[in-house]
Amino acid sequence: MSARLNLPNTLTWIRIVLIPLIVVVFYLPQPWSGPVAAIIFSLAGITDWLDGYFARKLNQTSAFGAFLDPVADKLMISTALVLLVSKYPGFAVAIPAAVIIGREIAVSALREWMSELGGRQHVSVSGIGKYKTTAQITALIMMLWGQKLWFIPMYEIGYGFLLLAALLTLWSMGKYLMAAWPHLRGY
Description:
Layout: H1 7-27, H2 33-57, H3 63-87, H4 91-116, H5 127-145, H6 154-184
Helix pairs in contact: 1-2, 1-3, 2-3, 2-5, 3-4, 3-5, 4-6, 5-6
């Protein structure tokens, strides 16, 4: 099996293919559209964990998978944030969404630039990134759900996680910039 068609990469492609489905379901004029979009988003999020697990367990890591996985993550997160900003216009959702999306673009550009300088290891994924991702996924699932689940105020709790995710996003970006600072000073 080629590196591009292995199980981990197939799971990543599934995550990408689910993105338009999330959008379509989210905008259906049905009372169940938010919860179903959240469930699809959750399934896509599970593929993120599974692709990494199987890549390590089956020794199927590849350069293509290392490229595709973060692209799929950024597409999924950004799409969900755009959906939420469209449904809940105003600064309360737009500012944390802009912080998260802006950080993803800035850090991706920083990693690329550092790679060209031979310093990519200085801006590799940090431990805080796992917490940031967990907070983002939790926030987005709950906010996409958008209505109470039994007595649980999903949107409100999700919004709290979104604010936490935005703070962790800024913190992790600061760590990346500090790690890259010696290289940035020369330019």
